[in-house]
Design a protein that fits this description.
Length: 920
């Protein structure tokens, strides 16, 4: 019985206490003496102490690396992947390797990679991985399908893949998951297969090869000086070099990443040179890409004898894009191999832009066709090559170049160059829109040839092979197209825009094309062979041999120029427009030339039909059959400047406003001008609408009995009117205008009289009489013996003069008190005064009035004043009771009513007579 009880007790205790606890995550410190990195990884993988290293735990371990690690041989038990082992044990658990300061793990270029992440996850913080060397994939790090890698402030540098097979990922080969590469550096890694017979071996991803998932690369990560060089071949095809910095089979989200100094190179062969694509990056972009700096990367096609396209995307080759913003491409180069073409010096887009590329700058990128002993390679898209559909908005192309290859022996032809700034070749099912582009200082230069020089076409923008193209609110200026030297020199054509090889229409709206130069060729501003409509645009100061402004080589396609200014272009024929075949509609446009040659020309014969509402300065070469309306002597500024809107325009200036109108033969049919300003019903010709400037009344001041109206008016004639019915003359101009009127004005209005005018009304505006001063002293009915009394009165606002009037039945004294006499400093006029002549002894009346500016107020009410004689002594004589002198009694005051409300003189009753004193 007891032997059975003990097992039961043990079972009960175990059930109460539970299973033994799992070990916790551990920190393992590596000093490469007591504990080596090899043993630390084994401890973390097995959760057991190994070779002086403490045991690992769960769910992850942190290995603190306090010493550099130098590996001299592969770790024997590590997996052999793509034919190569690793110098460290496989990563099979969750491990963080944290540098104590900036420790390095080096493989010393000894024919093994550094790390295999077979399963689990590896995070490298602050660690440098270098000196891995293998023959096939992942010189520094390999990530398997079940593995995960994270790099934070880490460096993967100086690792190589070089062998007789295809090479993948000089720094990292990823077939699993890289969660993030953040604030890290991938530099100086390389993939370079050796020469083989037959087809050369390809090289993909000098820095990183990705066939798994890379979630994000961000936070200032640098991908620099990595190379992917396709292998040479003794046979027919050189190997491909794809993604000097990164090759990715799947889309990656990137922000704040720099690609610099990376190179993709195709291998050489006896027949066809190998393809080189994506000097910095080859792949697709996910999400919103922002803050990329792509500089000094190269894609160089391999040499061969068969012409092909073998260099694409000196900076980047991208397939699918969602949204891309705030990035810069500079000094990248795509160069074709011998006899081969090159495309996209800065960026090559081969696919769909699902949203847009916006606010990206392309500076000083180059695309160069390969040299040849027969026909040299062409070059397309110095800044960018778009082989797909999408929206490009607010991009800048400045100083980029496309240069055709050089024909390097007798009877050779130089390569042609297309799209120094931007080349677009849209798939037939797609469309492309270009908005707010600035394309300037770009060049297309044909290559020299012993026999024929190559052509330079579309120095600013070249578009080919696609439907539904729109160009809006863009500036294309200072671009130059020139041909290469040769027994028959090449020509430079379409210095601004080249449109060719498509059947669907192209529309150019609100765009300025100026100061572009086509050397020896056609179309200084535009050369088009497709249906093209130009609306609300400016084409000025361009030059070419034929068609200084526009060269229409239409092949029976219809063309239209509407409300466009084509001004001061130069050519030997057709300075404004050169038409070769097809019909051309010109509506509401300004056509004017430099005056050297005819404005318009039609080489096929006959005049251009269907020209309506044309405004021009020069000759009558653009005249044609009805309906038309040719108006000459329009005043257009020769200065191209910012008059508002997104693009520069030539303003209509001078002359009378009606000179600038086109007759309304047909409806204007367009709401705004090039700047986005509203057009009038009877609109102006060209891209600039004279602005309607409504009258502005700056001030209305009542200066009785007048009105002073200050008017700011941009259009001229206006009329002041009022309900009082006073005849007010029309006044032309601006400034202050005084309108004489009665005692008050009501319902003042100011009305412009021309076609652009607008009325400005003031309701119930009144000019009331001026305030009247009130007499103060001498008071009404006062008496005084002083013949020089002091007169005073109340002030009225703004008065600069007062007048005192003293009288009986005629003027006794008339005294003016004003600011000039009494206050030369400009203070208000005094409100008191003393007359300079004595007043007579008698009853007098006085009143006062004031003046504001030049207007007198009404007279005040009048006050009555008595001037009495002075006191005199009387001798009493001998009569009884009179023993002293007695004064003559003062007469009794008159009986007087107060002044009435109208200020009229009151009725005055004479005083009773004064009797002499009696004998008593």
């Amino acid at each position: 019985m007891r032997q059975r009880i003990i097992p039961i007790v043990v079972i009960l205790l175990i059930s109460l206490l539970g299973s033994p606890p799992a070990s916790e995550a551990a920190n393992i410190t590596v000093d490469e003496s007591t504990c080596t990195l090899i043993n630390a990884i084994i401890s973390a993988n097995t959760n057991s102490a190994t070779g002086g290293c403490s045991a690992g735990g769960n769910p992850s371990d942190t290995i603190i690396l306090n010493a550099d690690v130098s590996l001299t041989a592969a770790y024997g038990p590590s997996s052999s992947i793509f034919g190569n082992k690793a110098g460290l044990p496989d990563i099979t658990s969750n491990i963080i390797i944290q540098a104590g300061t900036q420790e390095t793990i080096s493989g010393n270029n000894s024919n093994f990679r550094i790390l295999n992440v077979v399963s689990g996850s590896l995070t490298l913080n602050g660690v440098t991985v270098t000196g891995g060397a293998v023959g096939t994939a992942g010189g520094g790090i390999y990530v398997g399908g079940s593995g995960t890698l994270t790099l934070t402030t880490a460096t993967v540098t100086g690792n190589t893949v070089s062998g007789t097979t295809d090479g993948l990922g000089g720094g990292i080969a990823n077939f699993g998951t890289i969660t993030a590469i953040s604030n890290s550096t991938i530099s100086n890694n390389s993939v370079q297969p050796t020469i083989v017979a037959g087809v050369g071996k390809f090289a993909r991803g000098g820095g990183i090869h990705n066939e798994g998932t890379i979630t994000v690369i961000n936070n200032g990560t640098e991908i620099s000086n990595n190379t992917a060089d396709g292998g040479d071949s003794s046979g027919d095809n050189g190997g491909q070099g794809l993604g000097g910095g990164i090759y990715s089979a799947n889309a990656i989200n990137m922000n704040s990443v720099t690609f610099s100094g990376n190179d993709a190179t195709g291998g050489n062969s006896a027949l066809e040179g190998g393809l080189a694509s994506g000097g910095g990056y080859y792949g697709s972009l996910a999400g919103t890409t922002t803050g990329l700096i792509v500089t000094d990367n190269t894609a160089t096609g391999g040499n061969g004898t068969v012409p092909t396209l073998n260099a694409e995307g000196g900076g980047m080759w991208v397939n699918t894009i969602n949204t891309w913003t705030l990035s810069t491409f500079s000094n990248n180069i795509a160069t074709g191999g011998s006899s081969s073409a090159a495309s996209g010096g800065g960026l090559f887009v081969d696919g769909v832009i699902s949203n847009q590329i916006e606010t990206v700058t392309f500076n000083n990128n180059q695309v160069v066709g390969g040299a040849s002993t027969f026909i040299a390679g062409d070059a397309r898209g110095g800044g960018m090559f778009l082989d797909g559909e999408g929206l490009l908005r607010s991009l800048t192309f400045d100083g980029n170049s496309a240069t055709g290859g050089t024909g390097s022996s007798p009877d050779t032809t130089g390569g042609s160059a297309y799209g120094g700034g931007l080349y677009s070749s849209v798939e037939i099912t797609g469309s492309a829109s270009f908005e707010n582009l600035l394309i300037q200082n770009n060049t297309s230069t044909g290559g020299p040839g012993d026999d024929f020089g190559g052509s330079g076409v579309g120095a600013g923008l070249a578009i080919s092979n696609g439907p539904a193209i729109s160009i809006t609110n863009s500036t294309i200026r200072l671009n130059s197209a020139s041909g290469g030297a040769g027994s028959s020199p090449g020509q430079g054509s379409a210095a601004g825009i080249s449109l060719s090889a498509q059947s669907e229409p192209v529309e150019i709206t609100a765009t300025t094309i100026n100061n572009n130069t086509a050397v020896g060729g056609n179309g200084g501003g535009i050369l088009t062979t497709v249906p093209t409509t130009i609306i609300n645009s400016t084409i000025s100061n361009n030059s070419a041999s034929l068609g200084g402004g526009v060269y229409f080589f239409a092949n029976s396609n219809d063309m239209s120029v509407q409300f466009t200014t084509i001004l001061n272009n130069s050519a030997s024929s057709g300075e404004a427009i050169y038409l070769f075949g097809s019909l051309l509609e010109v509506k509401g446009s300004v056509l004017a030339s430099s005056g050297v040659a005819a404005d318009c020309n039609n080489a096929v014969g006959g005049l251009m039909p269907d020209i309506t509402n044309v405004k021009r300065l020069g000759d009558n070469s653009c005249d044609n059959v009805a309906p038309k309306n040719i108006e000459i002597d329009i005043h257009v500024s020769s200065t191209l400047q910012n008059n508002g809107g997104d693009t520069e325009t030539h303003a209509i200036i001078g002359g009378e406003p009606n000179n600038n109108m086109i007759n309304n033969v047909v409806s204007c049919g367009i709401a705004t001008d090039q700047r986005g300003e509203p057009r009038d019903t009877v609109c102006d010709a060209g891209s600039y609408e004279i602005p309607t400037i409504p009258m502005v009344i700056a001030s209305v001041e009542c200066v009785n009995p007048n009105l002073e109206v200050t008017i700011t008016d941009g259009d001229g004639p206006f009329m002041i009117d009022a309900s009082a019915g006073v005849n007010v003359p029309v006044t032309v101009g601006t400034g202050t205008h005084t309108v004489m009127g009665p005692e008050k004005w009501d319902n003042l209005s100011v009305q412009e009289t021309d076609g652009d005018g607008e009325a400005v009304n003031f309701g119930q505006f009144k000019c009331l009489p001026l305030e009247v001063p009130n007499p103060l002293t001498p008071a009404h009915l006062s008496r005084t013996t002083n013949p020089f009394p002091v007169f005073s009165w109340t002030a009225i606002p703004g008065a600069n003069r007062y007048r005192i009037f003293v009288f009986d039945d005629k003027v006794v004294a008339n005294r003016t008190v004003d600011i000039r006499e009494n206050s030369p400093t400009g203070d208000p006029a005094p409100t008191s005064d003393t007359l300079s002549v004595p007043l007579p002894v008698k009853r007098l009346f006085w009143r006062v009035r004031g003046r504001v500016n030049r207007i007198w107020s009404l007279w005040s009410i009048r006050f009555t004043l008595f001037i009495d004689p002075p006191m005199v002594a009387i001798d009493a004589g001998s009569g009884p009771g009179l023993d002293q002198a007695t004064s003559v009694p003062t007469p009794l005051p008159a009986v007087e009513q107060p002044p009435n409300s109208r200020g009229e003189a009151p009725v005055v009753m004479p005083p009773p007579p004064i009797q002499p004193p009696n004998s008593r």
